[in-house]
Specification:
By secondary structure, the protein is an alpha/beta fold. The chain is 39% helix and 16% strand. Helix 10 crosses helix 16, helix 12 packs across helix 16 and helix 13 packs across helix 16.
Length: 445
């Protein structure tokens, strides 16, 4: 592959399905997570080869034109006459970084209403369409949205293995909600866990050596997003605040969302900081994890949790490396929780059932780091420990969640960096964290 590193993207099967029944497919996710490469692999492989890559695996088999709005000429032409620009497009086209020309959405809507053949438009964007109602409403009922994340650990485990493209994707959620976990031993990750947390999942960052060069990439990346991309979607007076706000948010990942704490270093109003946080959410840099709720329970904490979208970015922002994480167990615990949450979010993109993510916390202090609710109503809980031992006390929050969810509760798992996969009571298990992305050795009860 001309020296380029190949990473299989497990959502590509879902994308191919969407192109067979949706007039427009939107691939959105953070800048530099691989959206362009994925779109070109599926639809415009000749453009991919010009960048030193070779397309591999299944594709549409159809001919798509490719236009990027990072190109000044294309962007200016589309802004000057959106309707005329869309009218002149080829039959099938990939429009890259389409959020840079928001006026195009209305023109694409009109084009689809005239011709609803599936697979006409593949749009990629580095802004969350679901958090921009005006854009989402324009294509409601006409598009399927596919979220692409930075690389998951499951995808990194298959790095360069083109021959494995058609093999089933490992999904921890299958075991959590269905097959169960076999009693088995696994080798500890040990220092590898800290290294994986610090590395993150951005392909371009992983191409650089750990340490100073990788941290430099993340700094340049954040600068590009906050100084250029956000200006495309909003007019704000203090773009200089955004990188510092991200640093503070990175230090609070895995904690309850507290706007006052985030705003404390700035001489800006709370509403202004809230607006800036929404902009960072729109760019997929951070997110709020909603609290799980139950109408029968009155003592649940209703504050969301804050998570940075990628632990590599978080570590770069706060100057943490694997050695820092070894020395600071509290910080390691926070980042391990975000690491597991983001891995599960990434795997949910190719899981065959819709799922929603929450956290659980009551006013007595019992908590569960991650609550996953499947569409049919089944509920499972994940507690994350960066240590090597698990005790019955670590299941306190999971037992409370089981009681609150009743018959809907299917499993409670403590993920830890130990060796043994073992039961701790009815539907409660301790599972080595590496089982998140590695095949399970058999099927257990």
């Amino acid at each position: 592959m001309n020296g380029a590193v190949y990473y299989p993207r497990h959502v590509r099967g879902h994308l191919l399905e969407a192109l067979h029944d949706s007039p427009a497919v939107v691939i959105h996710g953070p800048r530099q997570c691989g959206k362009t490469t994925l779109a070109q692999t599926l639809c415009a492989p000749e453009h991919l080869s010009r960048s030193g890559w070779e397309a591999s695996g299944p594709s549409t088999g159809l001919e798509y034109a490719y236009i990027t709005f990072d190109d000044d000429a294309a962007r200016n032409a589309a802004r000057a006459d959106p309707a005329g620009f869309v009218a002149d497009l080829p039959e099938r086209v990939v429009l890259d970084e389409v959020q840079r020309v928001p006026a195009l959405f209305a023109a694409i809507k009109l084009a689809i209403d005239r011709d609803r053949r599936p697979g006409r438009f593949v749009l990629t964007g580095s802004t969350n369409v679901l958090l921009m109602p005006a854009l989402a409403d324009s294509l409601a009922g006409r598009m399927q949205i596919v979220r692409l994340h930075p690389l998951s650990q499951a995808e990194l485990a298959r790095q360069g293995r083109v021959s494995e493209q058609t093999r089933p994707c490992p999904v921890f959620l299958d075991s959590l909600f269905g097959d169960g976990f076999a009693i088995a031993s696994s080798e500890r990750l040990g220092p590898q866990l800290r290294e994986r947390i610090a590395a993150g999942g951005y392909p371009a960052a992983l191409a650089r050596p750990p340490g100073r060069r990788r941290a430099r990439w993340y700094a340049d990346y954040l600068d590009a997003v906050t100084q250029r991309d956000i200006k495309d979607i909003a007019r704000i007076a203090r773009t200089d605040v955004l990188p510092r706000l991200m640093e503070i948010a990175a230090a609070q990942t895995g904690r309850l969302f507290n706007v006052s704490s985030l705003a404390a270093p700035f001489q800006l109003s709370l509403p202004t900081i809230r607006d800036y946080l929404v902009l960072l959410e729109r760019q997929f840099l951070l997110e709020r994890l909603a609290p799980w709720h139950n109408r029968r329970l009155k003592r649940l904490v209703k504050t969301p949790k804050l998570h940075i979208d990628d632990t590599g970015l978080a570590c770069a922002l706060i100057g943490a490396d694997p050695e820092t994480l070894r020395a600071d167990r509290g910080l390691l615990g926070q980042l391990a929780e975000t690491f597991v949450y983001q891995e599960l979010r990434r795997q949910s993109g190719w899981y065959h059932h819709p799922v929603k993510f929450f956290h659980y916390r009551d006013k007595d202090g019992a908590e569960v780091d991650i609550v996953i609710e499947r569409a049919a109503g089944a509920v499972a809980g994940i507690e994350v420990k960066a240590g090597v031992t698990v005790t019955r006390a670590d299941f306190r929050g999971l037992r409370k969640l089981a009681s609150a969810a009743g018959e809907r509760f299917v499993a409670g798992v403590v993920l830890y960096d130990g060796e043994l996969n073992a039961g701790f009571g009815d539907r409660l298990r301790a599972v080595p964290v590496r089982r998140l992305w590695e095949p399970h050795p058999g099927i257990g009860p």
